[in-house]
């Protein structure tokens, strides 16, 4: 294994760890902002780093189509191309390809699809996905898999999971070991415990640098998601990092950390920043609402981000109503800062052995809601 993971502390099933990759260290539990097309939308790379983020996620599907993996490699790799000198994880492209529906054709060897941008035809196999991620110079490469749809009958979920396990073995053989670089396998099986167990057994036999839980946050609901984690996470190797893909809301992250997950990504904080949504310790706010137009308070008086230090809710509301680009910039910065604060709090609580108390305080503040001005 070329990617190191040190388990520094635990509190119940929750873990505090450190991943050492080619381009730096990642303190876990960690949240990875989405850099779909080689950029965190509305943010400069140095601004992303200032929030506390140590790793970002790049998108294989989008980058292979625009500007092309070979072009990125010729220009020095994705770190140089986007001026992010810290670790990068790239997804495999499987989720985006599977979501194309009428534009793709699946077979046992891979997927043929048409670009949604220009209609050109492309072929993605486990080997090609690994090659693209190597060209991008991802510190953490993800196995190519079929993200099982929801809802799904057991027979279809079984076939999908077993195809993903076959592809995982092929991708592992195609992966080139280098110091500081790693490959993660992805556990599939939808909400069926027996399928999740079969998937974990297949992946651990192959052997990966880390293990992701995929196929969740696709509409099954929080209770079902936590039920899958309760079954799946204890089966994963203790000495390797665990990544819950595409999750999520703050309460989802907190519950998953409590169950032993180490890594997260989600579009919500950046998408929210572009749609007037702010995440706070007292829940979510819609800054477009008229109740904020005369409010002199910051989004959150305990937040140290530039939006909260320098601007009022009234000003942010005005920017949103005026459709000014600065609104998206400030709200995205705030949301990413909030998510990194959330992870810092979880890491500290695990180290201190006080996670239950920390979660109780988190849940109480979230339930209290936003307090209107006098």
Task: Summarize the structure in words.
Helices cover 42% and strands 19% of the residues. It is built from 15 helices and 17 strands. The radius of gyration is 20 Å and the shape is globular.
CATH fold category name of the largest domain: TIM Barrel
For the largest beta-sheet, the strand count, sense and barrel status come to: 9 strands, parallel
**Which oligomeric state applies?**
single chain
Classified in CATH, the superfamily of the largest domain is Queuine tRNA-ribosyltransferase-like
Number of domains: 2
Unreliable stretches covering 5 or more consecutive residues = none
Helix percent reads 40-55%
* Strand residue percentage: 15-25%
CATH class of the largest domain: Alpha Beta
What structural category do the secondary elements indicate? alpha/beta
- Beta-strand segment tally: 17
Strand order of the largest sheet: 4-15-14-13-12-11-7-6-5
> Residue-averaged pLDDT, rounded?
96
- Rg from Cα: 20 Å
CATH architecture field of the largest domain? Alpha-Beta Barrel
> Span from first to last CA?
58 Å
- Gross geometry: globular
| Count of DSSP H/I helices | 15
């Amino acid at each position: 294994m070329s990617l190191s993971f040190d388990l520094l502390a635990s509190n119940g099933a929750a873990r505090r760890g450190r991943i050492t990759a080619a381009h730096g260290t990642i303190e876990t539990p960690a949240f990875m902002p989405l850099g779909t097309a080689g950029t965190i939308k509305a943010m400069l790379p140095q601004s992303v780093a200032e929030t506390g983020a140590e790793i970002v996620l790049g998108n294989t599907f989008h980058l292979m189509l625009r500007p092309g993996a070979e072009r990125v490699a010729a220009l020095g790799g994705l770190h140089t191309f986007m001026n992010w000198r810290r670790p990068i994880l790239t997804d495999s492209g499987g989720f985006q390809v599977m979501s194309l529906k009428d534009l793709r054709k699946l077979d046992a060897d891979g997927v043929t699809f048409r670009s949604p941008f220009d209609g050109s035809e492309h072929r993605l196999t486990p080997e090609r996905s690994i090659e693209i991620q190597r060209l991008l110079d991802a510190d953490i490469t993800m196995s190519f898999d079929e993200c099982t749809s929801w809802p799904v009958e057991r027979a279809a979920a079984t076939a999908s999971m077993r195809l993903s396990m076959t592809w995982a073995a092929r991708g592992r053989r195609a992966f080139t070991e280098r110091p500081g670089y790693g490959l993660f396998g992805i556990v599939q099986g939808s909400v069926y415990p027996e399928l999740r167990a079969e998937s974990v057994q297949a992946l651990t036999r192959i052997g990966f640098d880390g293990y992701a839980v995929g196929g969740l946050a696709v509409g099954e609901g929080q209770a079902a998601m936590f039920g899958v984690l309760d079954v799946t996470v204890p089966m994963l190797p203790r000495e390797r990092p665990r990544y819950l893909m595409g999750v999520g809301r703050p309460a989802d992250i907190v519950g998953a950390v409590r169950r032993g997950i180490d890594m997260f990504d989600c579009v919500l904080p950046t998408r929210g920043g572009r749609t007037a949504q702010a995440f706070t310790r007292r829940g979510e706010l819609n800054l477009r609402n008229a109740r904020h137009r005369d409010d002199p308070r910051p989004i959150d008086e305990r937040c140290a981000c530039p939006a909260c230090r320098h601007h009022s809710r009234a000003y942010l509301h005005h920017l949103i109503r005026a459709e000014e680009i600065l609104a998206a910039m400030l709200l995205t910065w705030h949301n990413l800062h909030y998510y990194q604060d959330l992870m810092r709090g979880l890491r500290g609580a695990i180290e201190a052995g006080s996670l239950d108390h920390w979660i109780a305080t988190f849940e109480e503040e979230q339930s209290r809601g936003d307090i209107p001005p006098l």
